[in-house]
Amino acid sequence: MSSRARALALCTALVLALLVTAALAPLPYSVAYPGMTANVLGDDKGKPVITITGADTRRTTGQLRMTSIVATGPDASVHLSDIVKGWFRTDEAVMPKEAVYPVGNNTEEIAEHNAQQMKESQDTATAAALGQLAKSPKDVKVKLSLADVGGPSAGLMFALGIVDKLDGDGAGHDLTGGRTIAGTGTITEKGEVGAVGGVPLKTQAAHRDGASVFLVPRKECADAQAELPKGMRLIPVTTLDDAVDALKALRSGGAVPSCDIP
User: Fold this and answer.
1) Does residue 178 form part of some domain?
2) Using one digit for the tens of pLDDT, what is the confidence trace for 202-255?
3) Could you tell me which residues are beta bridge partners of residue 57?
4) From CA 151, how far away is CA 149, in angstroms rounded?
5) Is residue 13 part of a domain?
6) To the nearest whole number, what is the mean pLDDT of the chain?
7) What is the DSSP letter of 27?
8) Residue 212 belongs to a domain with what CATH number?
9) How does DSSP classify residue 215?
């Protein structure tokens, strides 16, 4: 074998070794999938998701479903093959690990952080809903119970559920109009709706569980449209008032906001 052939063979072997190493090396990413959804107007594990005392509540129909994603754990190994596969699938998303797990270095720390975020989200959702209805938190008490879910992204749907149980559309009708409506979004005590992650996966989870309408933070319209399931209608919102007004319009056949209209 000539020296040139030996050099070429050596270079080829080195390239193959690098490719194999790259394929097998763990990378700082997580793979996310559509997660569970839950009807905040219903029960979870035998308990009402929303329990209200100190005020009369309405009997509701339809569903308001919060949505979620699931992801490979902080200690899981994600390889180049997983990233390539996720790139070509619509029901998976490859995300930087720090975007999925911004706080905590292990499962226990992350679970504690997510539980705290969920508790804060429930508190702000309650404050936003009671504020929207001009009801005093001293008189009306709200308890929210949803097991095995963490993070702040259910805030909007919690707030809508409280409004629907207490007031509906203000004229005796359900906000849902009998539909199954899903959504996502953080919320502040003033009712401002904030962006969340994984919206394309959440619309797929909503579609899987029977929703035909999805409430999305307006800033995430483009993300939501990227892999939108057929037949799913997007309604962009920036505040709780926006969401309530949009659902009233949807029920009555009025003008409903669209992601295609700025």
Assistant:
1) yes
2) 999 999 999 999 999 999 999 999 889 999 999 999 999 999 999 999 999 999
3) none
4) 7
5) no
6) 83
7) B
8) 3.30.230.10
9) E
